[in-house]
Amino acid sequence: MSKPKPKIQKEAVLMPKQGPKERSHNFNEVALGYTEEQVVAEAERCLQCPAATCVKGCPVEVDVPTFIKHLRERKFGEAVKKVKEKNSLPAICGRVCPQEEQCQAHCTLGKVGDPVSIGRLERFLADWERERGYEIPQKPASTGKKVAIIGAGPSGLTAAADLAKLGHEVVIFEALHKPGGVLVYGIPEFRLPKKIVEAEAGYVEKLGVTIKTNAMIGKLYTIKELLERFDAVYIGTGAGLPSFMGIPGENLCGIYSANEFLIRVNLMKAYVFPECATPISLGEKVAVIGGGNVAMDSARCALRLGAKEVKIVYRRSREEMPARAEEIANAEEEGIVFEFLTNPRKFVGNERKWIKAMECVRMRLGEPDASGRRRPIQIEGSEFIIDVDTVIIAVGRTPNPILQQTTEDLQVTKSGTIIVDESGKTSIEGVYAGGDIVTGEATVISAMGAGKKAAEAIHEYLMKKEEANNT
Amino acid sequence: MYKIVTKKELVPHINLFEFSTKEIAEKSKPGQFVILRINDEGERIPLTIAGADIKKGTITVVCHEVGKTTKQLASLNEEDCIQDLVGPLGKPAEIKKFGVVLCVGGGVMVAPLHFQAEAFHKADNRVIGIIGARTETQLIFENEMREVCDELYVATDDGTKGYKGVDFLKDLIKERKIDRVICVGPIIMMKTVSEFTRPYGIPTIVNLIPIMVDGMGMCGACRVTVSGKTMFACVDGPDFDGHKVDFEELTVRLKMYAPQEKAAFVFYGKDRRSL
After folding, report:
1. B9 with B63: CB under 8 angstroms?
2. Domain boundary assignment for chain B
3. Are the CB atoms for A203 and A163 separated by under 8 Å?
4. CA distance A396 to A240
5. pLDDT in tens, A203-225
6. Any bridge partners for residue A180, and if so which?
């Protein structure tokens, strides 16, 4: 068969997945990843367009066309090196980035068919490398400068990796007992296996970064104290404080914040209780309030833990849901039921103070609000009851206030986020911040992008200071 | 890893541990707590700090064997290590000169009460100590408390030592000029003492340790209602105004995992026998 110029393949190569019936009973990864043949076939679809618009859609500016070029020549080692020039956590990004809104949204092929599945290609390469053992770049000459990073989440790990590659001594202070932040406490095993987070955090350590767990900055050390020992500080503490709804009955037993539910299940492995000692108490009828990825994750965890009926209760309609389309589809396939345009008004308990029902109202959509989404308005007289025995509240997370409370000169907004300039610099000299602690709850990759930008700014600051000292 | 430097059985099923951790020791203040995890399969449990020795680089906790994790902790010995220890967490108690401070503690919590009483004593207060236990043989820290209190009263639930129950406090509170009450112990005790002081408007501070997971404001498991508002004991507390706490809700929420706790305990017993 001779094909001088292959036709454009409009359809992406599908990635094998565990079937919905099977997967809704286990915590194994849902998406199974491309085979070598599949990954090359998908890479072949790339048009290698000179404009490379995909790169502009990536918050860390991975050189997508070049890594795809290496990939389709089966030079996997070269390809992964290209990815890692910009992204130290590709196995994570390949799994949890909303590529459909980022690189893939800008793909030229997307105008005529499916965009290239850039995320799946990235995932393949990262897994390929991890299975063979990481190649550690040669250690750069030491600058003699020390940087403290607060929080070992996506933002902190990225900043740490970049700063270590530039020759700085980096220590990450992590409050929990494991590095990864939301990647270990929030995102479930079936979407992002914890051994992958462990491996990629391990890679960052191999670059020379020290990760100190069980270190709650603000309590164990203040930022001021860190500045006595380090030349610069990066704050990447994320948005870890759960929001509640502030409606009656919210403290009944059986009502969880999504954060608590997910921390128990993911970080503490409650799904293997009692072998792992942290319990979870789950009924048969579960309602998850909210429409974001955290709501999807909570609902799908509840299903896997054996709930008979899991409902997602969301006050707007499907179109306004902030969750990734892929995750909504996955949840639906698994049998999660969606109650759109519905909002709880009151939680009703039994005589033992356990949740037994939710009083809800139906909503309709009005004019767009500040977020650009249509504002939900309550329909009078539409009250109705949903019987539940477990409720998970996934209506958002806000910044943890401990650091702000213990750092006098740190300027913050009314909502508690830290104020920074374009480079990530805060109101205190030598202190930078980025990720959810600056933007409020957002994505893993945008937090990584902020970590990257701040690392550049910190490097520049340290080098300038050094120059000033030498003259 | 955090090494157990000292382990002492104070009374049956109540052990004192000193953990080696210079950095936590340097920062620990009365009223604060730590969260520990014994091993990779372990749960995170909060324990109130009962003392800190900066020179030795240790913190002290006293732990009552009540469930799986506390029993497992009790099975460890000096030189053994636990995997994780984080702290100090929570806001420190407000320590200053108030005048006469009544420090009331019950059960295992007499140990962290002592850490506070000692601080109030050093801050030039007249400290009246009240310590209680279920029965005489379960009473801890009597001598230690005597050293930092200007007066010390003992009470037991069954009357085997000192007063029977805490009702005698009613008269004491009525008759004496008391500027502040600190109460650390079982919920029923904190609630009762808060009711005793309410008519006199004596500021009464209770130290709450509800169920927690992270202990740093992330999960909200420890939410308590104070003055009708939801607070997180881990970051807003653990000290709260005893006159404003919803103790009923707290009692119910503390029992939320009772069936699971039992299952874990049974599993631990079986697991140990199979070793």
Report:
1. no
2. 2-89, 100-254
3. no
4. 9
5. 999 999 999 999 999 999 999 99
6. none
CATH fold label, B100-254: Rossmann fold (3.40.50)
| Lookup: tokens for A138 | 């040669």
- Is residue B203 a contact partner of residue B181, using CB atoms and an 8 Å limit? yes
For chain A, state the CA radius of gyration: 23
Distance from CA of A401 to the nearest CA of B (A): 9
In A24-159, the DSSP E strands lie at: 146-150
Residue B275 has pLDDT above 50, yes or no: no
Dist CA A344 CA A314 (whole Å): 9
Whether the CB-CB separation of A451 and A156 falls below 8 Å is answered with yes
Location of structure tokens 């509170």: B173
**pLDDT band, residue A370 (cuts 50/70/90):** confident
Strand order in the sheet with A210-212: A210-212, A169-173, A146-150, A232-235, A431-433
Distance between CA atoms of A322 and A317, rounded to whole angstroms? Answer: 11
Q: Could you say which DSSP state residue A9 is in?
A: -
Measure CB to CB from residue A402 to each of B217, B220, B230 and give the nearest one: B217
Separation in Å, CA A236 to CA A150, A224, A442, B90: 6, 16, 13, 21
Q: Which residues of A touch B (CB under 8 A)?
A: 175-177, 185, 213-216, 219-221, 240-242, 244, 246, 250-251, 253-254, 256-257, 259-260, 263-264, 268-269, 273-281, 352-353, 400-402
Q: What is the DSSP letter of A146?
A: E
Other beta carbons within 10 Å of A389: 19
Question: Which architecture does CATH list for B2-89?
Answer: Beta Barrel (2.40)
Whole-model pTM?
0.94
